[in-house]
What does this fold into?
Amino acid sequence: MVRKKAEHHDRLLAPLEEISLHQENIEKIEFIQNWCPKLRILLLQSNLIAKIENLNKLKHLQYLNLALNNIEVIENLDRCESLTKLDLTLNFIGKIVSIESLVGNYNLQNLYLTGNPCTDFDNYRDFVIGTLPQLATLDGVEIDRSNRIMALQNLPIIRSDILFEQQNYLCQRQKQKTRLQNDITNKWENEYKDMDPEERNKKFWAEKCEHAPEVRYEIEHMRQLKLKSEEPEKKEEKRPIKLFAPDGRPFNINQAKIKFMFSDAEPDKFILDLAVYKHLDSSLLDIDVQTNYVRVTLKGKIFQLHLPEEVETTNAVAERSQTTGHLVVTMPKVNGTIKSKMALKSNSKTQIDQRCKENQTAITGQSKREFLEIGPAEDVLDFTKITKKSNPSYIDPRFTLDEKKPSHNFVDDPEVPPLV
It folds into this structure.
């Protein structure tokens, strides 16, 4: 509420210097001195405040309006050293001696007590002027120098008379308070208990009532009941769940308050183990795996988990145990898959290189005889004498052929010319 009232100041409370909180049904002053320490003007009229309190930290406060409240004693303003104007119109201040607590407020110039019971006391004005000589006006009327001198001279006598009248008022007020509390309690417990709301409202507003704090509380209570009866019944709207932060980061949500285990021990995958209820039908589960989060919906309740690394959505696998009912979602990491592929590729390349080296070694050296089988192992071939130019007497054994003799029944055909 206070922040809403500070809309003209971009809803900033700390530097706020003026605020109006009138007609807000405030019953107690609290927190305002901590939220708005630089306040100069504070308007709290037309509320239900019964005690002046929690204002001692407002060192810059100059104007305080507490008119139309339920205040009966002036107190706890001695530390508001900058206070220049105090409005307590139409309260229930009967303890007039309590104004002596304002003696230390040297800057106080304007005081309003109109409509309080203390104004009916004899010599009320002279007592206030004599007690607070720093005042310039009282109840909107300027104080003359002659009035101030006369009030100061007669203050001891006036004070004794004021104390007597104050004591009589306080006794009457105590009796009134007890009587009104009993009457209001009996009225609501007996007379208004089974009465129709419309008839009750008519009867209440037609009755004459006293001017007292208890009656003000009752009037406000009736007003709230009337407003509540006139308002149409509103269905409770479920607060929408925010799944993502403004920057797009997914929130961690566990609406179902279900136990789970998340494992990232594997270098290439994440494993999520959800303790799904054993007898919950799998058709009531909805699983959505995205690159940076996983979401499981259980009977309309959302479980969402933000993943520390991106995963492959196409290769994600969801399995459910038939024994325990647990749901296990396995999500391969994008970086883990790339690394494994690179590792396999490097391993295969290493193996190919190793095989090539083995084959090359097999072609040269002593292992050559495994394929050629030429001569004994001790023989060493001299490839320098393999051609005629290097050795004219060398005859290649592959071209040395034995003459083939014809068979015994071979008949030479004379018509066939001889081979040249």
